[in-house]
Amino acid sequence: MRIVIVGPGALGCLLGGLLSKKAEVWLLDRDPQRAERIIRNQGISSQGVSGSWQAKIPATARPEDIGDADLVVICTKAYHTKDAIVQAKSLVKKNTAVLTLQNGLGNAEVIAEVVGETNVLVGSTQQAVTLLREAHIEHVAKGETVIGHLAGKVPVSLRQVREVFNKAGIEARISMNIQGVLWSKLVINAGINALTAVTRLRNGELTRSEHTAQLLRAAVNEAVRVAKRKRIKLLFDDPVTKVEAVCEATAANVSSMLQDVLARRQTEIDFINGAIIRQGNSSGIPVPVNTTLYQLVKAVESSYQQEVPRPQNPS
Ligand code: KPL
């Protein structure tokens, strides 16, 4: 099976490295210089819960170097989805599955606009991984990956993807309730990501202070009210307890949004708390805490240049 991972970020590197033990894997990058550096530096290296490993994976910014693919996994930031699938389009043939494991809502629909709904698989993963430096990751915690088909079918490709993931040690299962899967991850991200980005805390710290714990609960409860109004069937009965458990399970992790803020990058806030706000507005559910978190992250993101530096010798 030829697998192309689009986007060598934290998750892309993890999946690429693990899958390369069981399949032919390529990395497709939008940045040709970074792709060259990845090849020159012998691929991807990782430390953490899956042990220390290195994976020599070919990387390129030119899809024509690859030919075609059996599986394309989109691992870019949500705001790069359109560019990523346009770049990868020539790899997608009649039987190619295109899987999105990105955060937030709307990625699968953007992909389907470019390659058609039939080939699109959607999923969500609870793997916690940090990009320490280019192509070097820390695998902080393992977690289940749930996949499904955008139109609710079970094409052969879905079973094949589950099989190759499981063989590579990436625990995966198929769900017919894919909207529930996406919304469940959205609720988790809405509770954790923005709050860690604003406070600069690791996931595990959020439940240790009553102040952040209260905000987490409020953000989660708002998101759940929106989901219920939209008749989404979440994967857990007690969402607050679930999100607190994710904080514990990924206690040492720097959330993807905090990683973005620390690197002074654009965040995925528009696709997470921003999505809750849009869906809340269209269903008449007030979401004041999500709105405040959204505004705060937007303020941080738009003012990296204006940050007051830490004093050299604080007294
Ligand atoms: O998905 C995550 C993220 O950081 O984006 C969680 C589950 C919060 C793990 O850090």
Structural summary, described in words:
The chain is of the alpha/beta class and 315 residues long. It has helices at 10-19, 32-40, 81-88, 107-115, 156-167, 178-199, 210-229, 239-249, 256-262, 273-283, 288-301, and strands at residues 2-6, 24-28, 44-48, 53-55, 59-60, 71-74, 97-100, 120-125, 128-133, 136-141, 145-149, 172-174. The protein has an 8-stranded mixed sheet with strand order 5-2-1-6-7-8-11-12, with helices on both faces. Strands 4-3-10-9 form a 4-stranded mixed sheet, covered by helices on one side. The longest helix is centred in the middle third of the chain and has 22 residues, at 178-199. The N and C termini lie far apart (59 Å). The model has no long low-confidence stretch (mean pLDDT 95). Ketopantoate (KPL) is lined by residues 103, 126, 128, 188-189, 192-193, 203, 246, 250, 253, 255-256.
Which features characterize this protein?
315 residues; alpha/beta; eight-stranded mixed sheet; four-stranded mixed sheet; 11 helices; 12 strands; globular; binds ketopantoate
What secondary-structure arrangement, pairings included, does this model have?
Layout: E1 2-6, H1 10-19, E2 24-28, H2 32-40, E3 44-48, E4 53-55, E5 59-60, E6 71-74, H3 81-88, E7 97-100, H4 107-115, E8 120-125, E9 128-133, E10 136-141, E11 145-149, H5 156-167, E12 172-174, H6 178-199, H7 210-229, H8 239-249, H9 256-262, H10 273-283, H11 288-301
Parallel strand pairs: 1-2, 1-6, 2-5, 3-10, 6-7, 7-8, 11-12
Antiparallel strand pairs: 3-4, 8-11, 9-10
Helix pairs in contact: 3-4, 6-7, 6-8, 6-9, 6-11, 7-10, 10-11
The structure holds ketopantoate.
